[in-house]
Design a protein that fits this description.
Layout lengths: L3 H8 L8 E2 L2 E2 L4 E5 L6 E6 L3 H20 L2 H17 L1 H12 L3 H21 L6 E3 L6 E9 L2 E5 L7 H13 L3 E4 L5 H14 L6 E3 L6 H9 L3 E7 L2 H12 L4 E5 L4 E5 L5 H13 L9 E7 H15 L20 H16 L3 E4 L3 E3 L2 E2 L2 E4 L6 H4 L6 E7 L2 H9 L3 E2 L1 E5 L3 H10 L4 E4 L14 E2 L2 E2 L4 H6 L2 E9 L2
Parallel strand pairs: 7-8, 7-10, 8-9, 10-11, 12-13, 12-20, 13-18, 17-18, 20-21
Antiparallel strand pairs: 1-2, 3-4, 5-6, 6-24, 11-23, 14-17, 15-16, 19-22
GO molecular function: glutarate-semialdehyde dehydrogenase (NADP+) activity; succinate-semialdehyde dehydrogenase (NAD+) activity; succinate-semialdehyde dehydrogenase (NADP+) activity
Keywords: Oxidoreductase
Family: Belongs to the aldehyde dehydrogenase family.
Length: 485
């Protein structure tokens, strides 16, 4: 059973490779982890810094060649054992995730299953890293391409999907032969600690999977970017921080993968199935209390169905229950902290002050909870139409023509995810090709899968996670030309 006490015991074992030992962490500083639903103290953890990060990098560097040299089948088998352990401990892991992040328990369980699916996918993909042969221009040589692991990888994961992000970044790196250093978000380190404990139990050798626990990420991020032994950075978080990391990596021309902010449009055309569109909007907007990078941030509805859609959406959203993630029937858990609540309040107040109509919700319930909210009569002058709200607020914007809504949907620096509902085939193709986004949900509000490439265009990121393409991001291509054959 992986309860919090067991996790704290794991911190005191030598699995963190010198960062913490039998006497506790090398650092004397600590930080607390709280439940966002009620503020309860969950754990006190060692607050690591640059010294511990360097130790982790050195450990990963020492383990890199032996790990890369192991047969792919060996790496695959360890990943598979890790997957099996995650599945075996779904109940405990889900409870940890709900306690530290707040999302309803069924959502936590779904996230852990999704995380396990990524681990399983890359356990299988480890054995499918192929090169190629090239027809040579003469008979005295042979030309071929091999693929090798990039090397030590520094990974930084966010608080909103703290289990699936660990699996989505770590498992492809480990599968192809990279070693990793993971720095999870300070709000949600316990689920990363639990998954690390299971990884060690699965059999990853010393130095292959290293964990940094810290309340502040700036100094650790700088060290990961500046240390020449780290060959790649993989980060999920805000576009602002992504820009900083990209600049810090530029001196070494270091490889980098970024999954950054989004401002996803959700478009409903006149020919859409309105009931299906309402269901899809609820999935795309209110999952994880709207705290997702692919959350529907701007809902555009064509005039012919605008009033019907707004009425039906508000009626369904008004039924969503708000409360502690462990309570039965709860659909909307807390926001992660006071700053998140304040941003949502500011967006709603700005919109209503500028003429938006409040169809349901609109206020803080108590503590970190906010009512699921629907606004209509929204225009682009309002914060909810141009800034990523990251909360349970659905702003509805009326539009007239397909050409107009495409211009509005693309009028952003972001290009992560988009959604639209329509049935006319010609329109479906035209809109799908015209939207400037890396992922598009057509007549669906959910599209993430371990088998599909996840990532964005423009300032929403670089690279892809998931699918075979996710493994390619951790590989180097080497051309071999063999003469005198």
């Amino acid at each position: 059973m992986i309860f919090t006490e067991t996790l704290i015991a794991h911190v005191k074992e030598p699995h963190l490779l010198g960062l913490v030992g039998a006497a506790g962490a090398a650092t004397t500083k600590t930080f607390d982890v709280h439940n966002p639903s009620n503020g309860a103290l969950l754990a006190t953890l060692p607050d690591m810094g640059v010294a511990e990060t360097r130790t982790a990098i050195d450990a990963a560097y020492a383990a890199q060649f032996p790990w890369a040299e192991r047969p792919a089948g060996d790496r695959s088998a360890i990943l598979r054992r890790w997957h099996d352990l995650v599945i075996a401990h779904l109940d405990d892991l889900s409870a940890i995730l709900t306690a530290e992040m707040g999302k309803p328990l069924p959502e936590s369980r779904s996230e852990l299953q999704h995380a396990a699916a990524y681990i399983e996918w890359y356990a299988e993909e480890a054995k499918r890293i192929y090169g190629e042969t090239i027809p040579a221009p003469s008979t005295d040589r042979r030309m071929l391409v091999i693929k090798q692991p990039v090397g030590v990888v520094g990974t930084i994961t966010p608080w909103n999907f703290p289990a699936s992000m660990v699996a989505r970044k770590i498992s492809p790196a480990l599968a192809v032969g990279c070693t990793v250093i993971l720095k999870p978000a300070e709000q949600t380190p316990l689920i990363a600690l639990a998954m690390h404990a299971l990884a060690i139990r699965a059999g990853f050798p010393k130095g292959v999977f290293n964990l940094i626990l810290a309340s502040q990420g700036d100094a650790i991020g700088r060290e990961l970017c500046a240390n020449p032994r780290v060959r790649k950075i993989s980060f999920t978080g805000s576009t602002e921080v992504g820009r900083i990391l990209m600049r810090q990596c530029s001196d070494q021309i270091k490889k980098i993968s970024l999954e950054l902010g989004g401002s996803a449009p959700f478009i409903v055309f006149d020919d859409a199935d309105i009931d299906a569109a309402v269901d899809g909007a609820i999935q795309a907007k209110y999952r994880n209390a709207g705290q997702t990078c692919t959350s529907a941030n701007r809902i555009y509805v064509q005039s012919g169905v605008h009033d019907e859609f707004a009425r039906k959406l508000a009626a369904q959203v008004g039924k969503l229950s708000v409360g502690d993630g462990f309570s039965s029937g709860v659909a909307i858990g807390p926001l992660i902290d006071d700053r998140a609540i304040e941003k949502v309040e500011a967006h709603v107040n700005d919109a209503t002050a500028k003429g938006a109509l409040l169809l349901c919700g609109g206020k803080r319930v108590s503590g970190a909870f906010f009512e699921p909210t629907v606004l209509s009569n929204v225009d682009k002058s309002m914060l909810v139409a141009c800034d990523e709200t990251f909360g349970p607020v659905a702003p509805i914007i009326r539009f007239e023509t397909m050409e107009d809504v495409i211009l509005q949907a693309n009028d952003t620096i972001y290009g992560l995810a988009a959604y639209f509902y329509a049935t006319e085939l010609k329109k479906v193709w035209r809109v799908a090709e015209a939207l400037e986004y890396g992922m598009i949900g057509i007549n669906t509000g959910r599209m993430s899968s371990e088998a599909a490439p996840f990532g964005g265009l423009k300032q929403s990121g670089i690279g892809r996670e998931g699918s075979r393409h996710g493994a390619e991001d951790y590989l180097e291509m080497k051309y071999l030309c063999m003469g005198n054959i």
